[in-house]
Amino acid sequence: MSLDVAEFHAEVYTIVRLIPPCRVTSYGHIAKLAGMPNHSRHVGQALKFLPANTTPLIPWYRVIGASGTISSRGPGTDGARRQRNALVAEGVDVTDGRTGDFRIDLRTYGWFPTRDEVRAMQQIEAEDV
Fold first, then answer.
1. Are 13 and 82 in contact (CB under 8 A)?
2. Count: domains in the chain
3. What ranges in the chain are assigned the alpha helix state H?
């Protein structure tokens, strides 16, 4: 499966909207569900370029690193803290790691459906519209 950039971003946004409250998944899992499993960094780029007031909401903050950490946005940025705060507001337990990173227990909060399960969710959502 090969998607152009706009199609890939649209697919990422569609999948991210399906992540339930109080759950998280990884950039890599979103890439896998979008049919492009080697493009986890591109998932991060798609979320980085997400317009601020997108309607319906795309809960970008529910996508984290595969190790259960919130990815740093680099020195002098507050994106990781904003992501942490949004997850805590939903009820996700975020702990401070030894190196100052923020961690989420994927066994407790992880959301890792199969592609078939996501297709079924998308179909149900399309019928509701």
1. no
2. 1
3. 5-16, 27-33, 40-48, 79-90, 106-109, 115-128
Q: CA 84 to CA 114: how far, in whole Å?
A: 26
Short-list 3, 48, 5, 44, CA closest to 25: 44
* CATH number for 74: 1.10.10.10
Determine the structural domain holding residue 105 and report its residue range.
5-120
> Position of tokens 């492009």?
36
Instruction: Quick: pLDDT tens for 36-76.
Output: 999 999 999 999 888 878 888 899 999 999 999 998 776 66
pTM: 0.91
115 located within any domain: yes
